[in-house]
Amino acid sequence: MHLERHARRVNPAHAITPDELRHVHMVGIGGVGMSGVARILLDRGYTVTGSDMKDSLTILALRAAGAVIATEHKAENLDLTGDTPTCVVTSFAAIPQDNPELVGARERGIPVVTRSDVLGALLLDHVSLLIAGTHGKTSTTSLAVIALQQAGMDPSFAVGGQLSTTGTNAHHGTGSVFVAEADESDASLLTYSPNVAVVTNIEADHLDFYGSEESYIHVFDEFADRIVDGGYLVVCLDDPHAAALGERIVQQGDRINVIGYGTSDACTRHPSIAVGAEITEITPKPDRTDALIRISVPAHASAGNSGGDQNEAETSTHRVEMHIPGKHMVLNAVAAIVSSVLVGADHERAVSGVNGFQGVRRRFESHGTIAHGYYEGASVYDDYAHHPTEVRAVLTAAREKIQAMDSVAGHQRRVIVVFQPHMYSRTEEFASEFADALSLADEAIVMDIYGAREKPIPGVTSDLIIDQMTIPTHAAHRVDEVPRMVSSIAGPGDIILTMGAGTVTMLADPIVAALHEPVQ
């Protein structure tokens, strides 16, 4: 299986020792995942050096915190402070193995490890809460952090995006809990042994790495097997594969406690899994999505030890108010509440925390609403969605949002999506699914594929999606033409969404500017 071959690559032959963290050199330090680990290392008093291709706000912030960073890749960067690094950290997905710093480190006998190896070492002296799943990891991790902070627990955390409330993606807290994402894209989640693991959903992805859907699904079973004795697996019962994972673990015995969450119908379908939180009502509103939930998780359960008898759990009812629209965000919020209670948060404070959640960068992130002129009331949002299921969830949330709003000057509000496919292999695999999901909008602009680390595949272009669309769709071959295209089709009160994992995120503000211009 592909998984077996690649898992050996991402798991170290031996655990990183504290001495190996004394001076960490990070290749590609400006990335969201790498920079988060760098922040925590700096906060813990370790020496951090690194390199990236260019300066950024992230690089400047790390320098201000004490990191020494070069803005090009060369072997000499290993001596930025005059001391030899005790380990060199890289990302196999983003950094080629012939990178001069990696080559130089191996020649000098310096251990070369992955970000997940270092994060795993940082987790060891904490109660670890890890969020896994195909979709929703960053939002759920962020929600759990906010819930724990509201409960006064000051967790350490490493998130795959910037929290709007703090403006950071990582923090070395004073509390005993560490919250982090467990990334399955390269099987690096198998590095960790969590006290509490959440699986939000499981759906075929990263098939360029795994080779088959079966291998991809299986990695979550292996991840669950790594949960400590007496720990907790928290699964979404609305997701068929996540629920099936929970049922498989229940059948293996009582080494791990399995807790489910989801809507009432989903909870009823899986009687073998103890329900930690049931969503009894979801109500979309113009400015938020409300939900009523029943929590049945024992407060202050000992996540690292056996126990947590669900028969002794007190049931409490709470109203969740999510300021980011969509059922998927309600599910993420409930996952965060359940898991945060398992590691010690109070029910009421956990709910209060998620109700105050202002979002994560690039998750239905608002870039502005036009106050006057022809486009009055039109709003522009940016979202990271780059898988058909994510696209469908975001567009469904947008439709629910406009359905709860009044028309503007007699104009029926519409949803317009600007989508940039991410990676050739994903486009080839899911072209039909992308077309089906994007057709939930009223009109679409589809950009050329953002290849990321991939080389082009002959015959694979955005036309594979466009040709199957069932709504008016326009091809955009140049980034700079998109704002004008949007202004030519948008109207008052419309929701415009830029969507994808590539350079499309740079277009939200130019689109806002274009909508402020007078109509010719």
From TrEMBL:
Its EC number is 6.3.2.8. The keyword Cytoplasm applies. GO terms for molecular function: ATP binding; UDP-N-acetylmuramate-L-alanine ligase activity. Cell wall formation. Keywords: ATP-binding, Cell cycle, Cell division, Cell shape, Cell wall biogenesis/degradation, Cytoplasm, Ligase, Nucleotide-binding, Peptidoglycan synthesis. It catalyses: UDP-N-acetyl-alpha-D-muramate + L-alanine + ATP = UDP-N-acetyl-alpha-D-muramoyl-L-alanine + ADP + phosphate + H(+). ATP binds at G133, T134, H135, G136, K137, T138, S139. GO terms for biological process: cell division; cell wall organization; peptidoglycan biosynthetic process; regulation of cell shape. Belongs to the MurCDEF family. This is UDP-N-acetylmuramate--L-alanine ligase. Pathway: Cell wall biogenesis; peptidoglycan biosynthesis. It is an enzyme of class 6 (ligase). It comes from the Bacteria. The gene is murC. Residues 23-123 form the Mur ligase N-terminal catalytic domain. Gene3D superfamilies: Mur ligase, C-terminal domain, Mur-like, catalytic domain, NAD(P)-binding Rossmann-like Domain. Residues 131-338 form the Mur ligase central domain. It comes from Corynebacterium pseudokroppenstedtii. It holds the Pfam family Mur_ligase_M. It is found in: Cytoplasm. Residues 363-502 form the Mur ligase C-terminal domain.
